[in-house]
Write a structure and sequence with these properties.
Shape: globular
Strand content: 15-25%
Number of helices: 20
CATH architecture of the largest domain: 3-Layer(aba) Sandwich
Strand order of the largest sheet: 4-12-11-10-9-5-8
Helix content: 40-55%
Radius of gyration: 28 Å
Number of domains: 3
Structural class: alpha/beta
CATH class of the largest domain: Alpha Beta
Distance between the termini: 34 Å
CATH superfamily of the largest domain: Type I PLP-dependent aspartate aminotransferase-like (Major domain)
Length: about 475
């Protein structure tokens, strides 16, 4: 369509003030700022003009433009951060907030947000207290550490440790552990940011104890071990263990009187040995401390199953220095995270049954046959709601994942419900579940079917929501 033909359509586009007078927009004036309504009207008009210039020849009038602007306004005002249903089978889903809080953590948060709290108040001494007190003794009881500090995430924990102990000094790290994590979090960049001088030893696939021994100088402050929790190197490989690093440190101190710290960034972190459930062997925090690490850092919202935070455990004199570092205040936890962390930690001290109340631990350790029972139930719920002949529905063997950069290459056997549309399409069904359901439902697509893994559905209410969402989709096709 040439410019001359477009001119009449462009002239019909209503003015902003004209659209604002429409009842569907003016009725919002009482509760929303005029500037917001004007911006949404302008956005709708801009989109309409772009559509015309693209040759789409849309049908419109002032009222339809106003309705479009109203939709934009209400969409803007709707909560962006909200609940979502994870039907993917990925347990620690970074895009969905990683770990799900256990009931004890939720209850603890609800209690402290109702009003004032003991965030930094000691009721025994009736004076100012420390926010570290809420979690430190619990972490020490679980891990055997002398002391602990928690900050807002594990990246901050690593930066805090390096800034305190390695700034202006050398930190030795294996080339095979110079990793990049999500969000372009690169160990070399963090080392540089902290003021530490990184000394690389070994090769990508093989590093030996003598590589560290030869690299130590009078300016070396630590040997840094990065646990490769989000990938594996297999085949012709060699890694230096924490025990070997501890022995190197002790030998050097005995010979020179100079202490070189052994610091492990464990990444995902775990308090439970998941190997008993069939998972690939991953060190627990307690094991890393027992094997010789002076300090260990790890995430709170991955395999631990708690809120987003980073935790550093280790020798008391070292943790005390971290607490006094100015960065500790910059990255400290807020009262809601403190409450959630304390609630989660208490579960670990209350036996197997309590630990299984932590959704992440339960989902990672649950056997496939248990999931199969829920898959069969979900299949029946879906079949009750969908008209016969609109979809093929079956329970199929599938693979769940730990996610969140944890347990790489670990296949978690599961059973899922596969919904293969006969009416409609797999892609449109998947899109409908995410965009048209009251609570968005995120599943997977495989083999031209929507795959719903009950492993990550938290309760029967979520199963009902999935069945209702599928019912509503197939009612439209």
């Amino acid at each position: 369509m040439d410019k001359a033909a477009l001119a009449p359509l462009l002239k019909r586009i209503p003015q902003v003030q004209e659209v604002l007078k429409c009842e569907c927009i003016s009725s919002l004036e009482e509760s929303l700022p005029h500037s917001l309504l004007s911006d949404c009207v302008r956005s709708e008009i801009t989109a309409l003009r772009a559509s015309i210039l693209a040759g789409e020849n849309p049908e419109f009038d002032t009222e339809s433009v106003a309705q479009g602007a109203r939709f934009r306004t209400l969409a803007f005002m709707a909560p962006s951060l909200r609940r979502i249903i994870n039907a993917t089978g990925v347990v620690i889903h970074t895009n969905m907030g990683r770990s799900v809080m256990c009931p004890q953590a939720i209850a603890a948060v609800e209690d402290v947000i109702k009003g004032y709290s003991t965030c930094e108040y000691d009721t025994n001494k009736m004076q100012r207290g420390s926010r570290h007190n809420h979690y430190e003794r619990l972490i020490c009881a679980i891990t055997g550490a002398e002391a602990a500090i928690a900050v807002n995430n594990n990246a901050a924990a690593v930066v805090l440790v390096l800034s305190e102990f390695a700034a202006g000094h050398e930190a030795i790290v294996s080339r095979g552990e110079l990793i990049e994590l999500g969000g372009s979090f690169r160990i070399p960049d963090i080392m540089d940011q902290s003021g530490a001088t990184m000394v690389e030893v070994g090769t990508t696939n093989k590093t030996h104890p003598h590589d560290y021994e030869r690299a130590i100088t009078e300016n070396t402050s630590m040997m840094l071990k990065i646990h490769k929790s989000n990938y594996q190197v297999i085949g012709f490989t060699k890694n230096v263990s924490l025990t070997e690093l501890r022995d190197i440190s002790h030998a050097h101190e005995k010979e020179t009187g100079h202490k070189v710290l052994v610091f492990e960034d464990q990444g995902s972190g775990s308090f439970v040995d998941l190997e008993r459930y069939g998972a690939r062997k991953e060190p627990t925090v307690a094991q890393s401390l027992a094997e010789g690490a002076d300090l260990v850092s790890f995430s709170g919202d991955k395999m631990l199953g708690g809120p987003q935070c980073g935790i550093v455990v280790g020798r008391k004199e070292l943790i005390d220095r971290l607490k006094k570092n100015p960065l500790a205040r910059v990255v400290r936890l807020d009262k809601m995270t403190l409450a959630a962390l304390e609630g989660t930690l208490r579960c670990y001290l209350q036996g197997e049954e309590a630990i299984n109340s932590i959704p992440t631990v339960r989902m990672l350790s649950e056997d496939a046959d248990t999931v199969r029972v829920r898959a069969d139930k979900l299949k029946a719920m879906i079949e009750e709601r969908i008209e016969s002949g609109k979809a093929d529905i079956e329970v199929v063997p599938e693979i769940s994942r730990a996610g969140g950069g944890s347990l790489p290459m670990y296949d978690i056997d599961t059973f899922a419900v596969a919904i293969k549309p006969i009416a409609g399409s797999t892609q449109e069904c998947d899109k409908f579940l995410v965009q048209q359901c009251p609570v968005p439902i995120v599943a997977r697509i495989a083999h031209d079917a929507v795959i719903v893994d009950p492993r990550t559905l938290l309760d029967e209410e979520e199963m009902e929501a999935v069945a209702e969402g599928l019912k509503n989709y197939f009612a439209t096709v």
